[in-house]
Amino acid sequence: MKNKTSFHNQSFHNHYGNLRKGLPNTIDRLSRHEPLVVAFLGGSITEGAGASDANITSWRALTEKYLRERLSEDQVTFINAGVGGTNSTFGAHRLQDHVLYRGAVDLLFVEFSVNDDTSDREESIRGMEGIVRQCGRLSPRTDICFLYTAADKNLSEELPFNIAIHEEVASYYDIPSINFAGPIYAQVKSGRMQWEELAPDRVHPNDTGYALYARYVRDFLEIALSLEVEYAYGGVQTKIPLDHRSYEHATMRNCNEADHSEGFHLKSIEQEPLMNWRYSSEQLYTDSHEASLTFTVVGQSAGLLMLCGPDTGIFEYSLDGLQFQSVNPFDDWCLVAYRPVITLFPFREERGSMRITVRNTGLKDERSTGNSFRILKLLSN
Questions:
Q1: CA distances from 337 to 81, 223, 267 (A)
Q2: Which of 192, 209, 319, 345 has the highest CB neighbour number within 10 Å of its CB?
Q3: 107, 36 contact by CB (below 8 A)
Q4: Helix H or strand E segment including 182
Q5: Closest CA relative to residue 226, chosen from 235, 218, 234, 236
Q6: CB under 8 Å to 170, separation ≥6 — which residues?
């Protein structure tokens, strides 16, 4: 039996993040020479935006390269679940389809500190905790590591808002974290580097910035994988949730699983230009103001994953037959391209059956070129 270790390393803690419980499952599998599945869940920085080649020079690709060289080509499998513009709420809903679709994973890196809203602490808690608890329920041996990437809002003397919130979740569940933003801020403040040298748009790193991110991950892995630990199984589910409305049960269902639809038809045509989406664009489409759709979920919340773009219109929804409420998903990004957008309907305090009706209004934002309504997925929690 290996001796349990606190995984406290002062140098790492001061400069990079917090080792906490480390990576016990990963160490256990490596000690047995068993295959390893490593997944990356996050936004555009995980996907590799800004890199000269996202599959070669991004931090994710460089981390994959490091692990292949440290282990072997046939011992480790990687899953890229980075989707630009997505936050932890969407990440929790995407987890089953984009990360766990082939079964359990052994190591999961989670990166949403840039895309989570700086004005909504509770939603950020619900998203990050939802990922942790859902993973603990469906893939209980998974080691999770939070990553905090740099951006203007994450470069400050004090612990930035979203990083502090994610650290609440990490601390509560004893999850290790790597803080890219901290050491970068220290170097910028000291005058040793300019932030724009690493990220010309002050968010997405160039190859130099990604190489630095990858070095931080490599340093973490060198420490975490060298320590001895006693594996503890199933600790996540024994803890009371920080927020009982967390997205622990969040899922995406196929758009054609509605109870009833009228005026919609299934399309599999790729929209152009399309951004922030590498998955199937099969959708229920309508531009008729008489179109409606009804679906049922069991949980605390429901919503839609839509494909929104230049011709997106206004729709409305009703929960369990109550008054319809209108939603205008059109924003500045719709002027640029089609992209996935989620809308979540109000929470219910208790889990139960919910019947949702959505319908096209025939109305549109003054900037829109049409009143189209495209549904990619039905969301539930």
A1: 21, 43, 18
A2: 209
A3: yes
A4: helix 181-190
A5: 218
A6: 18, 20, 146, 176, 177
Nearest to 250 by CA among 137, 40, 96: 96
Q: Give the span between the Cα atoms of 315 and 10, in whole angstroms.
A: 53
User: How crowded is the C-beta side of 307, counted as CA atoms within 13 Å?
Assistant: 28
Q: 305-346 pLDDT, tens per residue?
A: 999 999 999 999 999 999 999 999 999 999 999 999 999 999
* C-alpha to C-alpha distance for 249 and 351, rounded to whole angstroms: 10
Residues facing residue 145 across a β-bridge: 109
**HSE toward the beta carbon, residue 207, CA cutoff 13 A:** 5
The residue assigned the tokens 């060298």 is 226
Provide the β-strand partners of residue 134: none
Distance of CA 341 to the CA centre of its chain: 13
Global model pTM greater than 0.90: yes
User: Are the CB atoms for 125 and 131 separated by under 8 Å?
Assistant: no
Cα–Cα distance, 109 to 127 (Å, whole number): 15
263-280: pLDDT as tens digits: 999 998 777 899 999 999
Q: Tokens standing for 72?
A: 């072997």
Backbone angles phi, psi at 171, to 5 degrees: -65, -45
CB 55 within 8 A of CB 247: no
| 296's tokens | 């049922």
What number of other Cβ atoms are within 10 A of residue 174's Cβ? Answer: 16
